[in-house]
Amino acid sequence: MAKITxxxxxxxxxxxxxxxxxxxxxxxxxxxxxxxxxxxxxxVLTYVSIRPxxxxxxxxxxxxxxxxxxxxxxxxxxxDTVGVKSGRDMDKFALTGLTxxxxxxxxxxxxxxxxxxLECKVIEVKSFGTHDMFLAEVLAVDVDEKYIxxxxxxxxxxxxxxxxxxxxxxxxxxxxxxxxxxxxxxxxTNTPKETILKADSKFGKARRTGKMIEEKTLAGGVxxxxxxxxxxKPExKPExKSVGFKKVKADKFKQKENKKTSYEPxxxxxxxxxxxxxxxxxxxxxxxxx
Length: 290
What we know:
seven-stranded antiparallel beta sheet, 4 helices, rod-shaped, Pnp Oxidase, Chain A
């Protein structure tokens, strides 16, 4: 797929729609600024670029201090409001419900509702056309303790930081990795491997036997011996219910036994020629051959 070329523009996103606080605890202001970022890690240097016409530009130029506050998605409406309203005409903290609290190193206030606040001291100002860049050193970072995990690390994924891209506000997605995860070697665990017992190769297939064996492992640093069957016994197949031959035959003869019969022995009379003749009316009437 081919790319098309546009004229130069400010497409660099997503970026944080930072809330910039300035002034002091008696007279302060807050505005939204997307043109901010990190310049150096040692010393820790940052910047914010602001148009000279803004009230915040006037306060930072006077006090040489400001705070970069990172907002969460819950305050998206407040972030937008302080970006389109002017502090010269109103108290934007009272308008949006945001709370200004003291900073630890500078006089400019920070915002209580923001999970992270960077206290900055201006060291240089550079003019670049439409904006002036206030280059500053980060003197302190204030973090909401509810976003610090049990190891003491900052878990900003729980905070739900707000992002800004091309005139729209977004929430950040889920974490998919960390810096260097693509080349990171897997850490070796100190847990000893469990002893694996196998059947002798001469058996080919596992014999079905209930012989017990011992398997040693470590549980909480203590050696544990577990006895279990050497080979797993096959499960018994359920018996099929069917009508067998013996049952049918038994029922057949049972019916014959229950049938009543009237049997009387035959009687014969000896004739003068020495033959026998069946007497009439005796027993069952059956064909008789002399």
